[in-house]
Amino acid sequence: MSEFNYVSKLAQTYPTSGIRAMFDLAKDYPGAVNTCNGEPNFETPGHIKESGMKAIAAGMTKYGTEPGLDTMREAVANKYNREFGGYDYDNSNVMITIGGVEGILLCLLAILNPGDEVIIPDPTYTCYLGQTLTLGGVPVRVPLYEEHGFRLQAEDLEKAITPKTKAVIISYPSNPLGAVLSKEDGEKLAKVIEKHNIMVISDEVYEKIIFDGRKHFSLSQIPSIRDKVLVVNSLSKTYAMTGWRLGYVVSTNKDVMRYMFKMQQAVASCLPLFVMQAGADAINGPQDCVEEMRRHYERRRDLLVNGLSEIPGMKCFKTEGSFCTFINIKDFNMSSWEFSRNLLIKAGVMTVAGSAFGDMGEGYLRMCFANSDENIEEAVRRIKNYLVKGINHKY
User: What residues have CB less than 8 Å from 59, skipping those under 6 apart?
Assistant: First the structure.
């Protein structure tokens, strides 16, 4: 009898994360500087933690409803009414989710039939591919090019669309690329989306982490396609709340949202009430903590990018948003995985091979600067010693 008789084909073939592969390898190198984690090194702001503790003390520990706590749904709706203007969001436009990852899954559950094609940029965040496959969808990868600032081009999107195309997933500000969607490129994409009547799942979890005076732009701000756009967001990055597992989906398409509420029954039933209360108070409360963290990220981006740019062959895309830097390493004439592995073993620095995010990521490396100044400087020093000075002893 085969040892796999009781294991599904999906489980056997589900894509393995290249990020996880680096963490597994790094277990044998405990002194390595970790620049893999896309996670704030800041604590959750005190007033948010206090809100969660008060909610527990007040007995908010029972079951909730599938769409989420009304207080948080109202906070999200009001946020988008303020920031987008000219809209009239209410609770029926908002679904609370277990972070952004579940938000993507619920979007797909609500719109996807087996055999439907989902356009997924390449390179992009790792979960989209596996989630599409899980639901019987057909991933269609569309390349992103450095010469276009890693922004999806309308002509490339249109080439990929077929009669089976149901949706496109986009992510701006982008992990792993650090690119931000411009209004001009967004409007060009909108014309293709409207022409072919496809849905958009727009992952915007880094919306508040944008640099050099740029402003976040969402496809949902374009009136002609706003009913086709499902915005996925999260409190993880904005408020340093990664472990709280709190996100949401917001859309003017109330029909799709209604079925999304229903599909939560199949995944988690409901979220913890006290966590959602803290989330509501995060959104409604003072935002100076968000801007303070953003300023630190911008400074740390410069620290990392400027340091790496002094190393011959390391060509950094200057991050526009998120806390990831994507680095062109093609001059070194080795695979992304081999290069990343060498940096771990010989320089003591954990990075992620660009190929973890798709075939177009080959020849690139991702590093995250959601880290202390000291760790960023140490990572740059170690990489420089290894690549420039040829120092091969243990860091």
Answer: none
What are the backbone dihedrals phi and psi of residue 308, each rounded to the nearest 5 degrees, phi first?
A: -70, -35
| DSSP letter (8 states) at residue 172 | S
For residues 209 and 173, the answer to whether their CB atoms sit within 8 Å is yes
Residues 48-106 pLDDT 10s: 999 999 999 999 999 999 999 999 999 999 999 999 877 889 999 999 999 999 999 99
Query: Can you list the residues of the chain whose pLDDT is less than 70?
Result: 1-4, 391-395
| Strand ranges across the sheet with 199-203 | 94-97, 247-250, 229-234, 199-203, 165-171, 117-122, 138-143
> What is the identity of the amino acid at 89?
Y
Question: C-alpha distances in angstroms, 112 versus 53, 146, 249, 266, 392?
Answer: 38, 31, 16, 15, 51
Pair of tokens at residue 61 = 């520990």
Global pTM value: 0.94
Q: Hey, what are 363's tokens?
A: 């020849």
| Rounded Cα–Cα distance for residues 229 and 172 (Å) | 14
Q: Is residue 18 helix, strand or coil?
A: helix
In the chain, the domains with their CATH numbers are: 9-44+289-389 (3.90.1150.10), 62-284 (3.40.640.10)
Contacts of 203 (CB under 8 A, 6+ apart): 100, 104, 125, 169, 170, 171, 172, 232
pLDDT tens-digit series, residues 221-241: 999 999 999 999 999 999 999
- For residue 51, the 8-state DSSP code is H
Q: Answer for the pair 264, 230: CB distance below 8 angstroms, yes or no.
A: no
The per-type count for the chain, helices as H runs and strands as E runs, is: 13, 13
Locate 167 and state its tokens. 């949706």
Contacts of 130 (CB under 8 A, 6+ apart): 14, 15
Residue 247 in contact with residue 232, Cβ under 8 Å? yes
Q: What token pair was written down for 42?
A: 């800041």
